[in-house]
Each structure stands twice: as structure tokens, then as C-alpha cells.
């Protein structure tokens, strides 16, 4: 059986901070994201634009239309956040499928013995990352709710003393905000990590050709999960920024 | 029964029982989507988007069970 580790492996320590393999992958994808964004910005003012520009533009436009159907006229304000979520998670998911990620091993000292740790690991297959993304998402939902409703109406949703039923509904609403973090984090982590395990096991059982349909499936799953993450944020946002009665 | 065998059994039960609900849910979502498509073929793209979103919700429950199973197995 191939070795499968549920947590990211430590590669080296930098000033007491553990640098894990998923952090290295995350840094690479982060640079790619910034590079693509800068490329897009540079190309958008040129007269003659490259083909890649139109590909990205097509992507952005279709995602924009999708969010427009959910958020309506608030899309202009909220779209940068949502598309950043979508694009970053999409690239992270797909980066994990590249050959070499997870299969290149390096020797790392752990205590007294040397162990083999993959050099790169899909960042969304690390629970720390997905929890961080989920916390950012839920906090931005609260932020926009306060921004659009004002602090008084925002608190009124959670603390309503007019009658017992609204009081308990308020308590349930507070709980549901916390469970959103968990469900966001576990959905993304579970899907991507399960995909990695699946690919590893299939490649172990049948070394040749059998992993191909599963890789195609994982490309689709990576896309859908990125879409679901940003779409759910959009839906929660659109619920949060309207007044409740 | 040894601890190892019990552990394997618990992994199998976790994912097997956890997959029943989402399986039924996904079946219902698919059948309703096809029904809606039959009634209103023009709304195909809207139906598809909503269906995939609902599918992802239902699938997430199975994924929770899978995460528990994987933690039991590998951690």
C-alpha cells in the first residue's frame, strides 16, 4: 500500500515556522495567480491583445454572468472577492493534479530518522488552507452584512428579544454562522483529499492507463468545487445583505 | 476481535452508512432535474447550474463520511 498522510508534511523550518509541502505549492500557485492577473491587466490596455487574454476574459465573463443571476446589482461590489476565491481555488485544485505533485519525494529529518516526504502537495488537500479560506469567506459575509445593513440591523438578526421564537431562531443563526466555516472547510478538503487518495490507490492497483478517467473526473471535481465554494459564498452574501423581518 | 480488525470494520461501516443518504439525495435531485427539463427545455442552463449546486451539497455529506473514514484509516 502507498503511504497516505492526512496532514501536510514538514519540509524545513524557517525561524521556528514549519514550512510544509502544501505551503510551497501554495506559494507557487499564488505567484501564478498574480502573474496571470498582471498579464490580464497589461493586455487589457493594449490595442492588439493576445489569445490568452481572450481565454481569461471568456472565463471571467461567464463567471460574472453566473454571479449576476444570484447577486443582481450588487455584483460589481462583490465580484472581485468571489472571483478571487474561484480562481485561486481552481488553480490550487488543478495544480495538485500535475505530474510530480505528490510523487516527487525528498528526504527530511524527523527527530532522529530520515523520512521521505512529497516535495509538493495540493494546497486544498491540507485542512489548514481550507479552514483559512472558509474563515475568510464567513468573515467577509459578516463584513458585507454590516456594511449594507448597519451594525444595529445586523445584530438584530441574531439578538431578537421581541418573542421567544425569534430569540431561538437568532441563537440558531449564530450557530449556523460557525457551522458554515466547518462545512466550507470540510467540503473542499474532503473532495480534493479524497481525489488524491483515489488517484494514488488507482495508480497503485493498475499502473498503466487506468488513472486517466479518474484524472478527468478530478479536473471536473476541482472545477465544480471551486465553483461551489464561490457560489455558496455568493448565495450566503446575497442572503446576508438583505433585511430580515 | 482484534483492534486492527475493529478499526477496518469501523472504516467500512462509516463510509457505507454515510453513503446511503447522499445516494438517495443525488438520485432524487437527478430525477427532479430531468423532470424539470422535460417540462421546460429552454431553462436547461439554469436547471443545470442549480442541479450541480444541489448535487455538491448532497455529495458534501458523503464527503464528510469519507473524511471520517480516511481519518480512521490513515491517522
Automatic annotation (TrEMBL), chain B:
Entries under CDD domains matching the protein: ATP-synt_Fo_c
Statement: the UniProt record of this protein carries the keyword Transmembrane helix: yes
Pfam families named in the record: ATP-synt_C
Major location (coarse): membrane
Topological category with respect to the lipid bilayer: Multi-pass membrane protein
InterPro entries assigned to the protein according to its UniProt record, in alphabetical order: ATP_synth_csu_bac/chlpt (IPR005953), ATP_synth_F0_csu (IPR000454), ATP_synth_F0_csu_DDCD_BS (IPR020537), ATP_synth_F0_csu_sf (IPR038662), ATPase_proteolipid_c-like_dom (IPR002379), F/V-ATP_Csub_sf (IPR035921)
Family annotation (Gene3D superfamilies): F1F0 ATP synthase subunit C
Domain of life according to the entry: Bacteria
Location(s), subcellular: Cell membrane; Membrane
GO cellular component, one term: proton-transporting two-sector ATPase complex, proton-transporting domain
UniProt keyword annotations, A-Z: ATP synthesis, Cell membrane, CF(0), Hydrogen ion transport, Ion transport, Lipid-binding, Membrane, Transmembrane, Transmembrane helix, Transport
All copies of domain V-ATPase proteolipid subunit C-like, residue ranges: 10-72
Site (Reversibly protonated during proton transport): 59
Residues annotated as transmembrane: 49-72
Molecular-function GO terms, alphabetical: lipid binding; proton-transporting ATP synthase activity, rotational mechanism
Known role: Key component of the F(0) channel; it plays a direct role in translocation across the membrane. A homomeric c-ring of between 10-14 subunits forms the central stalk rotor element with the F(1) delta and epsilon subunits. F(1)F(0) ATP synthase produces ATP from ADP in the presence of a proton or sodium gradient. F-type ATPases consist of two structural domains, F(1) containing the extramembraneous catalytic core and F(0) containing the membrane proton channel, linked together by a central stalk and a peripheral stalk. During catalysis, ATP synthesis in the catalytic domain of F(1) is coupled via a rotary mechanism of the central stalk subunits to proton translocation.
Family designation: Belongs to the ATPase C chain family.
Full protein name: ATP synthase subunit c
Amino acid at each position: 500500500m502507498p503511504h497516505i498522510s492526512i496532514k501536510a508534511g514538514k519540509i524545513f523550518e524557517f525561524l521556528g515556522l514549519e514550512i510544509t509541502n502544501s505551503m510551497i505549492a501554495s506559494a507557487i500557485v499564488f505567484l501564478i495567480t498574480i502573474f496571470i492577473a498582471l498579464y490580464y491587466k497589461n493586455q487589457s490596455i493594449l490595442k492588439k491583445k493576445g489569445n490568452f487574454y481572450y481565454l481569461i476574459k471568456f472565463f471571467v465573463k461567464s463567471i460574472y454572468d453566473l454571479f449576476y443571476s444570484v447577486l443582481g446589482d450588487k455584483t460589481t461590489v462583490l465580484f472581485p472577492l468571489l472571483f478571487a476565491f474561484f480562481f485561486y481555488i481552481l488553480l490550487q485544485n488543478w495544480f495538485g493534479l500535475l505530474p510530480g505533485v505528490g510523487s516527487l519525494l525528498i528526504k527530511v529529518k524527523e527527530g532522529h530518522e530520515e523520512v521521505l516526504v512529497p516535495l509538493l502537495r495540493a494546497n486544498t488537500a491540507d485542512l489548514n488552507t481550507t479552514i483559512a479560506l472558509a474563515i475568510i469567506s464567513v468573515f467577509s459575509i459578516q463584513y458585507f452584512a454590516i456594511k449594507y445593513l448597519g451594525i444595529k440591523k445586523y445584530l438584530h438578526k441574531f439578538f431578537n428579544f421581541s418573542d421567544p421564537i425569534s430569540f431561538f431562531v437568532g441563537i440558531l443563526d449564530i450557530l449556523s454562522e460557525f457551522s458554515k466555516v466547518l462545512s466550507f472547510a470540510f467540503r473542499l478538503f474532503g473532495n480534493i483529499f479524497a481525489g488524491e487518495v483515489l488517484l494514488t490507490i488507482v495508480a497503485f492497483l493498475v499502473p498503466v492507463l487506468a488513472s486517466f478517467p479518474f484524472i478527468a473526473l478530478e479536473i471536473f471535481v476541482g472545477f465544480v468545487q471551486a465553483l461551489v465554494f464561490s457560489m455558496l459564498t455568493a448565495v450566503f452574501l446575497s442572503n446576508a445583505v438583505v433585511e430580515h423581518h | 476481535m482484534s483492534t486492527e480488525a475493529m478499526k477496518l470494520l469501523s472504516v467500512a461501516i462509516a463510509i457505507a452508512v454515510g453513503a446511503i443518504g447522499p445516494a438517495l439525495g443525488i438520485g432524487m435531485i437527478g430525477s427532479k432535474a430531468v423532470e424539470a427539463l422535460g417540462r421546460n427545455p429552454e431553462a436547461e442552463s439554469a436547471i443545470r447550474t442549480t442541479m450541480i449546486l444541489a448535487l455538491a451539497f448532497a455529495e458534501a455529506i458523503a464527503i464528510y463520511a469519507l473524511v471520517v473514514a480516511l481519518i480512521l484509516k490513515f491517522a
